[in-house]
Amino acid sequence: MTDLGLMTRKSVTDIIAEAGEHTLRKTLGALSITALGIGCIIGAGIFVLTGTAAAHFAGPAIMLSFVVGGIACAFVGLCYAELAALLPVSGSTYTYTYATLGEIFAWIIGWDLILEYAMGASTVAVGWSGYIVSLLHNFGINIPPQYAAAPWTEFKLPDGSTVAGIVNLPAAFIVLLLTAMLIGGTKESARLNNIMVCIKLAVVLAFIAFGIGYVKPANWHPFIPDNTGTFGQFGWTGVMRGASVVFFAFIGFDAVSTAAQEAKNPQTDMPIGILGSLVICTVLYVAVAGVLTGLVPYTELGVADPIAKGVDVIGLTWFSVLIKIGALTGLTTVILVLLYGQSRIFFQIAKDGLLPRMFSDVHPSLGTPSKSQLLIGIVVAVVAALTPIDVLGEMVSIGTLFAFVLVCGAVIYLRKSDAQVARPFRTPGVPLVPVLGMAFSILLMVFLPWETWLRLIVWLVIGLALYFAYGRHHSVLLNGAAAR
Fold first, then answer.
1. Burial of 424 (0-12, 13-18, 19+ CB in 10 A)
2. Where are the membrane-spanning stretches (predicted)?
């Protein structure tokens, strides 16, 4: 090993040069990148978490929770836009941290992103399983419940008996299917994603259009229910707790940044894709939350399929089936983009030697990091098949918020350390905007339960152990190319 320290950082010039050396195909335009963002953002948040957060934390003021989450993401999104245009590589926050805080922190954030993307994909896959079981039941096809739930998950059958889950086969199936598609090619996967995004946008807009005529304004009163005496249960603390919960719904615009190396014109396509998808989805979230809480009293929304419950109030049976199809489509695109993003981060980390080199191999004919994609798919499928959704969901938001803090800090740092480098897109109001992004992210982290913090700490300790056992000794930056 050389005498370089663990906080040795990559230069911006070297990172930009590396972006032109690799063979990932540049197939994505601004529209496809925006669709990737929408595809990942509109999913579990709008179809599941809206009802949960309204019923348990914020009431009708869940609309404000989405506004808070959207504002926090806007500040962070502006920072992502600058960095993705400046450093058009596939590593996202991992690469940005490598250029600012150095290798050890880059590894920490790369390990943290596994928590966000892999666990996030597993969470959504479990939600997908619930919706497909419900939809198939409408057509007279019944999947045995013990084969659509994680082990030790108990639930009651219609006859009153109790059954325990064995394995969630539908969740594993959808992950493996999408993994095979992503290995087959980015362009083809993006085309399918664009189609599915159009379908679920149509369903969401239809829910708003049909539902608004059935809204009962009385359901919006009180708009902010009185606090129960417990921190985070209604009142203004409930609004903030709700924002922390539904923040999962905004995960996705950051995954867009992992597509930078495959963008045709990253300097303009990336800012359009990141900010465009974020604005569109925030507006739709607030509108759906308003219609849903106007259709159904917030106390009745703590169910797995709150949008379907809202459709029941409208009274259109055929529309209920359409909503479930839209939910399935929405959840499918989320899994697709999260699997895509995770493999690209693995690809970049392996290029730097911190993971085995095989994960940076690009398939000669398909032009995709097939080995990295296959590993991620298998791991996510196993986790989704065997882990309850509540355990998975709690681990995702804090990992994302932690990454957001570092991204905002990277913008401030690089403005000073590499002021001379041309920036195709510049975050306005630096340092105020990045500081606000950091502040909002930290604030939302504070409102997460302590168990979530403990899981994050344990996860990071495991990551550090892996770094010192393998990555430190194979780092290209610390040891030179011979280490690989």
1. middle
2. 28-49, 61-83, 95-114, 121-143, 163-183, 195-214, 234-253, 274-296, 316-341, 372-389, 395-415, 427-447, 453-470
